[in-house]
Amino acid sequence: MEKPVLHLENADIYQRDNLVLSKVNLTINKGGFYYLIGKTGSGKSSLMKTLYGDLKLQRGIGSIVGFDLKKLKEKEIPYLRRKIGIVFQDFKLLSDRNVFSNLEFVLKATGWKDKKSIKDKINEVLDKVGMKAQYYKKTFELSGGEQQRIAIARALLNDPELILADEPTGNLDPKTSIEVMELLNEIHKSGKTILMATHDYQLIVRYKQKTLKCEGGELFEVAQKTTTV
Ligand SMILES: Nc1ncnc2c1ncn2[C@@H]1O[C@H](COP(=O)(O)OP(=O)(O)OP(=O)(O)O)[C@@H](O)[C@H]1O
């Protein structure tokens, strides 16, 4: 059987000395799409941060895209992040560069050298997110939805095994949120695995997926019909 993309077993999620989620058990296999919901402060971002190596896994078992989170060393974090695409609420694009250069920056930082391969890859991901014609624009010239498309394109650059999206529609209006969600759905259908933290009830109801909830210091899967954020 294929190894899960993500596996947590009795994993305790901490912010410094503060236990945020205890004994988290979660397995996500290739091709899965999960929402992560829960009230403000319930631990969604802390869980995400533990998954991409920003917070240390102190207790329990955790593996993600082949990395052991418990044994993860500082110098391995960039390699982990090459295999995970991360999308943030506030896009985190470099505002002094244009779209092409934002993407080129990531490819070069992750070891890409050949000019033609870099150009082809950037065209490919921009095409996927419907932004190929806007490669020359500075990111501040783009709308929020367009910026999030670029951030999603950036997440796709290294063909990640898992996409972690932390409130990707949190800064977008309802119509733009739906467009971004349609894009994430397309990416999911193309075979990618996605874990998406969200507060957006509109999306959860419209695009039904498996749903995990953080509540009372625990993480559990909830049935669709009882889902409330
Ligand atoms: N940098 C930090 N240092 C210490 N405690 C933190 C830090 N960031 C978050 N916390 C605490 O950890 C707990 C979980 O916060 P977290 O950001 O994971 O929640 P969340 O569910 O993502 O909330 P939101 O929906 O508002 O983003 C909260 O009690 C919060 O106050």
Task: Give an account of the 3D structure.
With 229 residues, the chain is of the alpha/beta class. The protein has one domain: 3-Layer(aba) Sandwich (Rossmann fold), CATH 3.40.50. The chain is 32% helix and 26% strand. The strands form 2 sheets. Strands 6-7-8-3-9-10 form a 6-stranded mixed beta sheet, with helices on both faces. A 4-stranded antiparallel beta sheet has the order 2-1-4-5, with helices on one face. Strand 9 and strand 10 form a beta hairpin. Helix 4 packs across helix 5 and helix 5 runs parallel beside helix 6. The model has no long low-confidence stretch (mean pLDDT 94). Adenosine-5'-triphosphate binds next to strand 2 and helix 1. Keywords: ATP-binding, Nucleotide-binding. Belongs to the ABC transporter superfamily. Part of the ABC transporter FtsEX involved in cellular division. Important for assembly or stability of the septal ring. This is Cell division ATP-binding protein FtsE.
Secondary structure blueprint with pairings:
Elements: E1 6-15, E2 18-28, E3 33-37, H1 44-51, E4 59-64, E5 67-68, H2 77-82, E6 84-88, H3 99-109, H4 115-128, H5 144-156, E7 162-166, H6 174-189, E8 193-197, H7 201-206, E9 210-215, E10 218-222
Parallel strand pairs: 3-8, 3-9, 6-7, 7-8
Antiparallel strand pairs: 1-2, 1-4, 4-5, 9-10
Helix pairs in contact: 4-5, 5-6
Bound molecules: adenosine-5'-triphosphate (ATP).
